[in-house]
Amino acid sequence: MHEYNTLPPNLKEVSNTYFLSQIANNTILREENRQPLDWRSKPKGVSSLRMLHFYDNTGIAIAEVRQQESNKYYLYKFGCDHEYREIFRIGLTKHYECSLCHHEQIIDSSD
């Protein structure tokens, strides 16, 4: 279930470098636009968010803050700060699970 007018979970401001590295190193599954209504929890008066979601239930967002003479933009990440642990290994294939959100990741190092 989506909450279209709320902030995404675990929203944290990030640098330009981090933001661009996430675009370069991840596949974007979907885009979403939100206009958060909960003014008390808004960082810096965010009026709208353009969110890019990744496969592991994380993502990045561009936030627009309306000001009197111009708009300002901030960069954020959202979702889990994964803490992966190895579950098991079969040959050169390793299976990991995040201890926080239980997202699973499989890495095959046979290349």
| Percentage of β-strand residues | over 45%
Oligomeric state of the chains present here? single chain
Q: What is the approximate shape?
A: elongated
Spans of at least 5 consecutive residues with low confidence: none
The major beta sheet can be summarized as: 5 strands, antiparallel
Q: What is the topology, as strand order, of the major beta sheet?
A: 1-5-4-3-2
Task: Describe what you observe in this structure.
The longest helix is centred in the N-terminal third of the chain and has 10 residues. It is built from 1 helix and 8 strands. The protein is mainly β. A hairpin with a 5-residue loop joins strand 7 and strand 8. The model has no long low-confidence stretch (mean pLDDT 86). The radius of gyration is 17 Å and the shape is elongated. The strands form 2 sheets. Strands 1-5-4-3-2 form a 5-stranded antiparallel beta sheet, with helices on one face. Strands 6-7-8 form a 3-stranded antiparallel beta sheet, with no helix packed on it.
Short summary:
The chain has 111 residues and is mostly beta strands. It has one helix at residues 16-25; strands at 12-13, 28-34, 48-54, 58-66, 71-79, 84-90, 93-98, 104-108.
